[in-house]
Automatic annotation (TrEMBL):
<feature type="domain" description="RecX first three-helical">
    <location>
        <begin position="65"/>
        <end position="104"/>
    </location>
</feature>
<dbReference type="InterPro" id="IPR053924">
    <property type="entry name" value="RecX_HTH_2nd"/>
</dbReference>
<keyword id="KW-0963">Cytoplasm</keyword>
<dbReference type="InterPro" id="IPR053925">
    <property type="entry name" value="RecX_HTH_3rd"/>
</dbReference>
<feature type="domain" description="RecX third three-helical">
    <location>
        <begin position="162"/>
        <end position="205"/>
    </location>
</feature>
<dbReference type="Pfam" id="PF21981">
    <property type="entry name" value="RecX_HTH3"/>
</dbReference>
<feature type="domain" description="RecX second three-helical">
    <location>
        <begin position="111"/>
        <end position="152"/>
    </location>
</feature>
<dbReference type="GO" id="GO:0005737">
    <property type="term" value="C:cytoplasm"/>
</dbReference>
<feature type="compositionally biased region" description="Acidic residues">
    <location>
        <begin position="40"/>
        <end position="54"/>
    </location>
</feature>
<protein>
    <recommendedName>
        <fullName>Regulatory protein RecX</fullName>
    </recommendedName>
</protein>
<dbReference type="InterPro" id="IPR053926">
    <property type="entry name" value="RecX_HTH_1st"/>
</dbReference>
<feature type="region of interest" description="Disordered">
    <location>
        <begin position="29"/>
        <end position="58"/>
    </location>
</feature>
<dbReference type="InterPro" id="IPR003783">
    <property type="entry name" value="Regulatory_RecX"/>
</dbReference>
<comment type="similarity">
    <text>Belongs to the RecX family.</text>
</comment>
<dbReference type="GO" id="GO:0006282">
    <property type="term" value="P:regulation of DNA repair"/>
</dbReference>
<dbReference type="Pfam" id="PF02631">
    <property type="entry name" value="RecX_HTH2"/>
</dbReference>
<dbReference type="InterPro" id="IPR036388">
    <property type="entry name" value="WH-like_DNA-bd_sf"/>
</dbReference>
Length: 218
């Protein structure tokens, strides 16, 4: 589990995000007295302006970049690469973007390891993705290979196999009455799309078919 620079752990990301949303909302309402805990990351904006608008009018590229990043983070957690791309789309100079992202990383608002842990837990529990598919998801989000590998090393093979069996049992109920070869092919295709290796997939499918009432022999 990743420890944030301010002492929070990766599991507290949701609480930190709620805190950030509230802080940005206060900023947009012109209530600036409680923003010190953000390490003066955001400049004050006059009433009726967003932080980004106010900073742009003052011609401060760093303040504009900070406002863009904070607004991105209020919607959902983001990786450093996703935020870098968002800044590039807004025309932020690369050196300004890197400086702001470095500061956001220092205070714990940007943490790719915590993001990766959250994504892996969510996708494994919800969609039932296995490590290969999870690695692809992390790569598309901009998580570097070393960080992704460290997080994926914590995936429990036994838990992954149990999740595969749950997926197969659920899908098998919709394939009742089909030829066993057709059932096997469709189940294998489903598990392959979710990133399960062939040996795990076929072992799980074999056991599930053997346990299915329609295939039991008295």
């Amino acid at each position: 589990m990743t420890t944030q620079p301010d002492g929070r752990r990766g599991g507290d990301a949701a609480a930190a995000l709620d805190e950030l949303r509230a802080a940005v909302a206060r900023l947009e309402r012109g209530e600036h007295g409680e923003l010190a805990d953000l390490g003066e990351l955001v400049d004050e904006a006059p009433d009726g302006e967003t932080p980004e608008d106010g900073a742009e009018q003052r011609g401060d590229p760093y303040a504009v970049a900070r406002a863009i990043v904070l607004r991105q983070l209020t919607n959902a957690p983001k990786t450093r690469e996703q935020l870098r791309q968002a800044l590039a789309r807004k025309g932020c100079p690369p050196d300004v973007a890197e400086s702001v992202l470095d500061r956001m990383t220092e205070v714990g608002l940007v943490d790719d390891a915590a993001y990766a842990e959250m994504l892996v837990r969510s996708k494994q529990a919800g969609a039932g993705l296995a490590r290969r598919a999870l690695a692809h998801q992390l790569r598309t989000k901009g998580v570097d290979d070393d960080t992704a590998a460290a997080v994926l090393d914590d995936v429990d093979p036994a838990q992954e196999r149990r999740r595969a069996r749950e997926l197969v049992d659920k899908r098998l109920r919709t394939l009742h009455g089909l030829d066993v070869t057709v059932q096997t092919r469709r189940l294998a295709g489903m598990l392959a799309r979710k990133g399960y290796p062939g040996d795990v997939a076929y072992a799980v499918i074999r056991d599930a078919l053997a346990d299915a009432p329609e295939h039991r022999r008295d």
